[in-house]
Design a protein that fits this description.
heterodimer, A: 245 residues, alpha+beta, three-stranded antiparallel beta sheet, B: 384 residues, alpha/beta, seven-stranded mixed beta sheet, four-stranded antiparallel beta sheet, 14 helices, 40% helix, globular
Chain lengths: 245, 384
């Protein structure tokens, strides 16, 4: 094959080479056909035509979750049958990117008809699987929608006296909350990816040590997200986020 | 696909490709001295004619133009080269504006890590550099000021004359990144005391991988790409002669008439967005901006959602939203002009080029009207 090519090149005069090179171009293969998007067809479908969009007037429960680090925000509204605790209606609104909108759509589909206890157990993983997978870097925008649903359920429970006492913030609570902060480098949370070196809580001050230099490209985003997640705890007055370098 | 992201890269003009072809297939030798073989002398001629042509476009002498691999390398060379040349003699302080593009911004940060003191100069709400702040920031230790000609995202064109006068008076080198303004806005180094200018071909329908740095005669620059003696012993490496010829051709093909045509498309998008969609903010200056750039924030909606909807309708546009960027960071430019995340979140940049027509501007805005309305319907922030 190589021999043949060389022969061809040698035979071809300068003139021919000049004219014929267009046809002899080596094509770099493109994967797939048509327009290519970073999302699965399922995500795109939910993004194009999201289900359960809008507001419920006088909802039984309302959750508003937002991450100032990413800027996305999601609101979830639920109507609950008082006897059976079944979610009769659920709607969401999104000020977010495609994965946020698609997850809001799929998670409200999943929650409809479930009891509050069942709906609480819906995970981000389930939503992501339902959507045929999400780009890892987009995980945190999508987790937000799941948290919105949980917040709406919590709101209902608090309003209806289903939450009896406020849980004091312990290190365990902090760790649990931080599992909802994504490590954008991997798309997994900052606890599982060992990005958090140390956490502590004392006299209303939560302290989190992040294993990143302060000038890392994701440092400010992670910091904002951590502050947001911990700042809303009822007995936390201040959040200190410390970087290692 | 209607491509409205010409600030990122442009379609190559066929005439540029035609001009380059002979330097790939016929005159493919390296540039030799006048005592070399004829193909090398021909190649040298192609290179030098290109240099001459680019130099004359900004009123420079040929010897003041050094070809590079693009604007990133040019800006690296300007900042690192002058910093290295002057750190012993003068000091270790440089000043860059907050809203520089990454080649300047991150080169400045790299120098910071090597012990340089960097001032990131504030800009006002339209993106204009704070001139009083600049005067105050310059010290005896300052080796270089780097302020872009026009902004890559919001299109604001700086008052380079005022900036250069300050630098001249204080006897400090001035570099300007003209990647987005070259041939689109006037620049004459005979009239403007600027010492270093970054130029690139990829924004003007030339090939990517070729750019240039204008270095005013006698400007202290330490060579940082070591190797051979090419480019007046300023930048080593086999010369990219087809690239240089393509670059020069691309420069020659930009006309004032074309710039006015781009400006009309820009104005159409801005006017229609502001008049036909509620809660829209123009980012950057109304009057002093690149002719090809419109950047608007559509409040209560998110930019990546907009760009994806636009893509599905066949338009390529860009956004400063964190969700769109690889780093998940909202645009430093929009934050630099005092905008919050929200302002960046819904910002969309339309940049026009030679292959756009007025219909593209019209249809893009028609699509935007529908997309914004639809996304606002599902937004918890929008007034309904």
């Amino acid at each position: 094959m190589k021999e043949k090519k060389r022969e061809h090149v040698e035979k071809a005069g300068k003139e021919k080479r000049r004219k014929g090179r267009g046809e002899r171009m080596i094509k770099v293969e493109k994967k797939g056909e048509g327009i290519r998007f970073p999302y699965s067809e399922k995500v795109l479908e939910h993004f194009r035509n999201p289900h359960n969009v809008g507001k419920i007037e006088n909802p039984d429960g309302k959750g508003l979750e937002g991450s100032p680090a990413c800027g996305d925000m999601v609101a979830v509204y639920i109507k609950v049958e008082p006897e059976t605790k079944v979610i009769e209606d659920v709607k969401f609104e999104s000020y977010g990117c495609a994965s946020n909108i698609a997850t809001g759509s799929v998670i409200t589909d999943l929650a409809r008809g479930k009891t509050l206890d069942e709906a609480k157990k819906i995970t981000w993983k389930q939503a992501s699987e339902e959507l045929g997978g999400l780009p890892p870097i987009k995980a945190h925008c999508s987790v937000l929608a799941v948290e919105g649903l949980r917040a709406a359920i919590r709101d209902y429970e608090e309003k209806h006296g289903l939450v009896t006492e406020k849980e004091p913030t312990t290190e365990e609570v902090i760790q649990r909350r931080l599992k909802h902060v994504m490590n954008p480098l991997t798309g997994l949370d900052i606890i599982h990816t060992n990005l958090i070196l140390k956490t502590s809580v004392e006299a209303g001050v939560a302290r989190v040590v992040v294993d990143l230099p302060a000038d890392h490209q994701f440092a400010s985003a992670i910091k904002e997200d951590v502050m947001d997640k911990l700042g809303s705890l009822w007995d936390v007055e201040r959040v200190d986020v410390v970087f290692t370098a | 696909m209607i491509y409205l992201d010409n600030a990122a890269c442009t379609r190559l003009d066929e005439r540029v490709l035609e001009a380059m072809k002979p330097y790939f297939f016929d005159t493919y030798a390296v540039a030799t001295s006048e005592f070399g073989y004829s193909m090398g002398i021909d190649a040298k001629e192609g290179l030098e004619n290109s240099r001459e042509s680019i130099a004359s476009r900004i009123g420079a002498n040929s010897e003041e133009i050094v070809f590079t691999s693009g604007d990133t390398e040019s800006s690296n060379m300007a900042l690192k080269g002058s910093a290295l040349a002057l750190k012993e003699k003068k000091g270790k302080h440089i000043i860059v504006s907050k809203i520089e593009d990454f080649p300047v911004l991150n080169t400045a940060k790299a120098l910071q890590k090597q012990g340089f003191d960097v001032t990131f100069l504030d800009v006002d709400a339209e993106g204009f550099a704070d001139l009083e702040g600049l005067k105050k920031a310059i010290t005896k230790e300052t080796v270089l000021v780097s302020i872009q000609y026009a902004n890559q995202e919001i299109g604001t064109a700086q008052d380079l004359k005022a900036i250069s006068e300050i630098c001249e008076e204080k006897d400090v080198l001035l570099h300007t990144d003209a990647t987005h303004s070259f041939t689109r806005l006037p620049l004459n180094v005979k009239e403007l005391p600027v010492d270093l200018v970054t130029l690139s071909a990829h924004t003007i329908h030339g090939p990517r991988g070729i750019g240039a740095l204008y270095i005013r005669k006698n400007t202290p620059i330490t060579k940082f790409m070591d190797g051979g003696f090419q480019e007046f012993n300023m930048r080593a490496g086999v010369e990219n002669i087809p690239g240089a010829v393509g670059f020069a051709t691309a420069v020659e093909l930009v006309t004032e008439e074309e710039n006015r045509r781009l400006e009309a498309m820009r104005d159409r998008v801005i006017e229609k967005a502001l008049s036909e969609i509620t809660d829209v903010t123009l980012n950057g200056s109304h009057t002093k901006r690149l002719p090809q750039n419109a950047n608007l924030t559509f409040h209560y909606v998110e930019g990546e959602s907009i760009t994806l909807h636009m893509d599905m309708r066949g338009f390529a546009v860009s956004t400063g939203s964190a969700c769109f960027s690889r780093s998940l960071e909202a645009s430093h430019v929009i934050r630099g002009i005092g905008g919050d995340h929200e302002r960046a979140h819904g910002s969309v940049r339309f940049t026009f080029g030679r292959y756009n027509r007025m219909e593209d501007a019209d249809s893009a805005i028609e699509a935007m009207i529908e997309i914004v309305a639809r996304l606002r319907e599902i937004s918890p922030l929008a007034k309904k």
